[in-house]
Structures are given as C-alpha cells and as structure tokens.
Amino acid sequence: MKTLQFIFIVFFLSCNSATESTDKDAHPVYVSPTIDKYGHLRKGYVRMPVSTNKNAIKNRNRSRYYYKTRGKYSHKHR
Questions:
Q1: pTM for the complete prediction?
Q2: Neighbour count for residue 26 (Cβ, 10 Å)
C-alpha cells in the first residue's frame, strides 16, 4: 500500500513540473560577459524572450510592413 502511495505522489509531482510556461511568464534574461577561446571579451547583453506562438513570424512581418509603409516612420519620396 505504501509503495502505491509513493508511486502516486511521484507521478503527481512529475505531472506538475511538466506544465508548460506561457508567454506571460517570459521575461528578459541578462547574459553575463564572457571571454572566448581567443581571449576576446564578449560584452554582456539582455536577451529578450522569444514567442512560441506559431504565428509570431507572420505577425512580426505584418507589423514591420505596416510601420514601414504607414505613419510617421514612412518616408515619402518627392
């Protein structure tokens, strides 16, 4: 009986840890400066979260097209 309870607890804990994180949980991550194999310093930087949405690339291109062709950022050639 105790082994059955133990297996159930292990199974329950493993299911809880396997839940997927949503995009709302994502946040920028600071990547520390490092030195490469040639001795050059690689500067630290902030890595922004990447969307896991399957339409993310399509939406990004649509947004880029919109802002390049409309609004105050568009350059009108005379």
A1: 0.38
A2: 13
